[in-house]
Structure formats: structure tokens, C-alpha cells
Design brief:
single chain, 191 residues, mainly alpha, flat
Amino acid sequence: NRKSVASLIAEFEAAGKLTASEAQEIRDAPRMVLPFSDVASYLGGSVVFVGLVWIVIALMQDVSQAGIDTALFIASFATAFLSFKLMKKGGRLNTLGESIAAVSTMTFAFAIGLLLDILNVHDDLILLIVSTVALAIGIGLSSRTTFIGTIITVCATQPFMAAIISTCIPDTPITPLLFAGSGSVLIWFSL
């Protein structure tokens, strides 16, 4: 049974461990600080990913869809392994590991989507399956990561809702309510 920050501050203030001004400074301090170096790591990881995708596309112009899909699955598993190892080490490598986890998730989602396209699955169903996979990965990562699990969850939620609407309940007047509901769930998830 963990105590909240506010209750700990009040408790320390009542016990005389903090003065009233110190307690107020702590209350007024930012709750979450994202250092510039972490932002640079996330952005740098994205730029590296775009560059790698560009190189891979150039190299695989004459490769079959099955060959590209195999390469995507191999890349996603390799980056997931690397991400896990880096996050396990902690510290500065954790941020890099989280950035690589986003790359791995995106690569895995592309690989699943391409595989389903090769199998001639309907486009709306592909979107539903791919976004469900990304959403599950994001939710799974959110308890283990500082930042990226939540970003993946947020990014996967709206395509998931669009796929639910287009496959299960197209052209209904409750569509805006479903998007509002998914936004409410995301807000609840963030608490």
C-alpha cells in the first residue's frame, strides 16, 4: 500500500522533517521532467530508423514480398532482443532501449500487416489485427518503460478504434461516441 507524494509531503511536514516553505516547493515542482538528452535520444532513434528503412527499401527493390516480410520479422525480433537487453541495463541505455522498443514494435506491426496482405486478408481486418497487436505491445510495455509504452498505446488506440468502427459498426451515429470513449480510456490509463 504505497502512499502518494502529497500524503508523504504532508506527513513529513507534520513530523517537522520539512518546513512549510520546503513542502510547498516540493508541491510546486514539476511532476515529470523529461530531460533534453532523453528527447534527443528518442528523436535520434527515429531518425536512425527512417534512415535504415530508406536503405533497406533501396536494397530490397527486387526482393519478393515474402522476402521483405521475413526481413521485417527478423529485424523486429532482433531489435526487440536488443531493446530488452538495453532496458535491463538501466541508466542512459534504458532510454535508448525504449527508443529501440518503438522501432521494434513498428517493424513488427509492418511485418504482420504485410503478411496479412500476402494472405489476401481484407484491409479493414489487417488494420484491426495490426493495431490490436501494437496496442497489446504498448500496454505490456507501459508498466516496464518510462515513456515509450504509453506513446505506443496512444498511437495504436485511434487506428484500433477506426478498425473496430469500419469492420464491426460502419455508418452508425455512435461513431463519435466511440472515439470519445477511447479517449476517455486513454485518460484513465494515464492516471
